[in-house]
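Researcher: Re-running this chain for the archive, since the previous output was lost when a drive failed. Same request as before.
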Amino acid sequence: MARELSTVDPQERFLEFFKKEKYRQKISQMAITGSESITVDFEEIFGFDQRLAEKLMEKPEDFLQHAGNAAYAQLGIEDAEYAGKIEKVTVRIVNLLGKEQLRKLGSKQMGKLVMVEGIVVRATPVRPMVMSAAFRCKRCGTVSHIEQTGQFLKAPPVCPSPDCGRDGPFEFVQDESTFIDSQDLRLQERPEDLPPGQLPRTLNVKLVGSEIVDVARPGDHVSIVGIVQAFAPSRPGIGKLRIFILHLDANSIEVLGKEPETRPPSREEEEKILTLSKDPQVHKKIMNSLAPSIYGYEHIKEAIMYLLFGGVSKSLPDITVRGEMNALLIGDPGTAKSQLLQYVAKIA
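Model: Regenerated structure tokens:
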């Protein structure tokens, strides 16, 4: 039976967990792969110590720090030489017992560890983010290091030198600062998860660490475990607003389905396409194959057919005519607009 964490050091419990043969092997292989993180299945933590798993969900920032310290301590036992080369070990959690819907994230989930699924619709380039910033006092030349959190670079309030103690000015020293790779994603609900008549909602996700950046691309179906955070947007001359915006600080990311790669058709597919192209009813057949369970709407299905196939752009001497088109569906609730959208999203 799990012991109460009020009387047992959580780091000691995590250290006991990492002494399992499976994780001892994973930690000992970190030097071979050059990794600074280890992936842990949440179900195994839950089976080892249910109370520890619950606290990890409730206070992830503190308990992920305990887990990282324990993993680093175990690395020192397995490979002391490699442990001396890195500063810390990041523990990445996968496979939580349940997943949250994007549209259900709210104030109750703030500061909690959650797992969400969705489609990546936007990904920024990988950019370096400063973790420990070095500042040089322009008065005395003393260099101080400030740990960075939040969105903005923070300088020291005063010079740490006892002979100076002035409030600057300070100069950022890039060569002596510590950086880490970061990337921002925008996650959107999957079409099949949408309630009828609702638009998909999105969530901004922050990825930090070389192991998880540049893993997913737009169009991929992903599962992300992270901590729900909130920040208050500010207005110039007014201050911060009372309404906060949620985002997710990712701890781990798994790609569940890649966007299908384009490939040339096979010989059998070419024969079928050529045969269909010679059919005088090909226009009608393709139109009727769109959402066949929805009766009628011939003119809407015809527009969707043209939308899916697209066209050929033309460059004229005075103008350029694009080949793609857009379609806007407007109608009363319950007229199958969302069903048509979901069908098109599946075959597009």
